[in-house]
Design a protein that fits this description.
Elements: E1 6-10, H1 15-23, E2 27-32, H2 37-40, E3 45-47, H3 54-60, E4 66-69, H4 77-84, H5 94-100, H6 103-112, E5 120-121, E6 134-137, E7 147-149, E8 158-161, E9 166-173, E10 176-185, E11 197-202, H7 208-225, E12 230-238, E13 241-248, H8 255-262, H9 266-273, H10 295-298, E14 305-312, E15 317-318, H11 321-331, E16 339-340, E17 348-349, E18 354-362, H12 365-391
Parallel strand pairs: 1-2, 1-4, 2-3
Antiparallel strand pairs: 5-8, 6-7, 6-8, 9-10, 9-12, 10-11, 11-14, 12-13, 14-18, 15-17, 16-18
């Protein structure tokens, strides 16, 4: 039996995908913007500069069986292709990224299939005041960065009609739906910006009519764009109408919440989908048959209500070794962390920067949301009191 394959994971933050892969039994090396303390405890973690250009040189020197990316490298198709020339890519290549990240292309494909996509235009001068609320989107960020009110639209941004409703995210592997989450966006108690992603709660209940729309969406995205492996779709649910907002063709922030809620490991589905005869973490040949199962058979029958929230900094502070040590002690290990994305000692926090991720479980989604609010408040108070004491010494 051969050793477990080594996966290189890169992106703005590699931690969530790395923990998922570690739970699946793979060996992991990572490179991202943070090299968080809890990630360093579990696997080699490199803070890359310049980012993201430095990722290519890092990967070229990396010993791995394959590599995958997290956000927001889907917006760098040329870089993805250049890195794929260095090492085997377990993810979507540049051509697919260009197509599925184009809101105009996506709108045409989904509309033809009878699915809803907001009115999207490239010229804000065409918009009439009577046509409702509009947003400006650059499609160059992730987690809500690059989304602004129309009045602040930068040159070259798309303008998209704002759809009312509940913000959801669906996680797929190929055409198979793995799970649905409620997206937390702009929640004041996390100190997130107005359009900033700040967490997920799952499993989020939807009607059979909405489920059928989700199944059709997966079939269309897989069939028309060739999406395989893990990807996420941002959605708005307006009554029984499901609007696709954006496709994120890679491991998304919602995946680890779906894993906990549905009792699955997403990385095993992802690696199988990108190799006709993938080698599992245990060294055995596998196929991608699981990714072709129906959604009901793919997810585990055990359901658990789980959520995570991202706390953002309210002021400028530097993390001390004592604060990192305390947070790591509170976190638990990678198998089921209670805190994650813990900043390394010396990390300089500025207002609006992500500080860390906080998890909670509950009997219902409402219960999870309340527990997240309480836990965020507790951690923020303890952390920033400790920082204030350190600064006053």
């Amino acid at each position: 039996m051969r050793d477990s394959p080594t996966i290189a994971i890169v992106g703005a933050s590699a931690r969530a995908a790395a923990f998922s892969a570690l739970r699946a039994g793979y060996r992991i090396v990572t490179a991202d913007l943070f090299a968080d303390a809890d990630l360093q405890q579990c696997c080699p973690a490199t803070k890359v500069a310049p980012y993201p250009e430095g990722l290519r040189d890092w990967l070229a020197q990396c010993e791995c069986d394959g590599w995958m990316y997290t956000g927001a490298l889907e917006n760098r198709p040329k870089l993805v292709d250049a890195m794929a020339a260095e090492r085997q890519l377990w993810g979507m290549g540049g051509k697919t990224l260009v197509e599925v990240r184009s809101p105009l292309t996506l709108a045409a494909v989904l509309s033809k299939a009878g699915l809803l996509f907001p009115e999207t235009r490239i010229n804000r001068k065409e918009i009439l005041a009577s046509e409702g609320q509009w947003l400006a989107k650059t499609y160059q960020g992730s987690s809500g960065t690059g989304v602004q009110v129309l009045e602040k639209a930068p040159e070259g941004a798309f303008v998209q009609q704002q759809v009312p409703g509940i913000s959801l995210s669906a996680v797929y592997v190929g055409q198979t739906l793995l799970g649905v989450t409620r997206q937390l966006v702009g929640e004041p108690w996390t100190r997130a910006g107005e359009f900033q992603y700040c967490g997920s709660i799952a499993p989020w209940p939807v009607s059979q009519q909405v489920k059928q729309q989700l199944y059709t969406l997966g079939e269309v995205l897989n069939g028309q764009f060739g999406l395989k492996g893990l990807y996420g779709v941002d959605l708005m649910l307006e009554g029984e109408k499901l609007w696709t907002i954006e496709v994120n063709p890679r491991y998304t922030a919602a995946v680890e919440v779906v894993e906990r809620a549905y009792g699955i490991n997403a990385i095993t589905h992802h690696t199988a989908a990108h190799q006709p005869a993938a080698v599992s973490a245990g060294g055995h040949a596998t196929t991608n048959s699981k990714s072709r199962q129906s959604p009901e058979k793919t997810v585990c029958s055990r359901k658990e209500h789980v959520g995570k929230a991202i706390l953002f900094a309210k002021s400028s502070n530097q993390i001390t070794p004592e604060q990192t040590a305390w947070l790591c002690a509170e976190a638990g290990d990678f198998t089921r962390p209670q805190l994650a994305d813990i900043p390394a000692p010396g990390t300089q926090l500025e207002p609006g920067n992500p500080v860390l991720t906080i998890f909670a479980e509950g009997e219902t989604c409402t219960d999870v949301a309340q527990k997240l609010k309480q836990r965020v408040r507790q951690i923020e108070q303890q952390l920033f009191k400790a920082i204030a004491r350190s600064n006053n010494r």
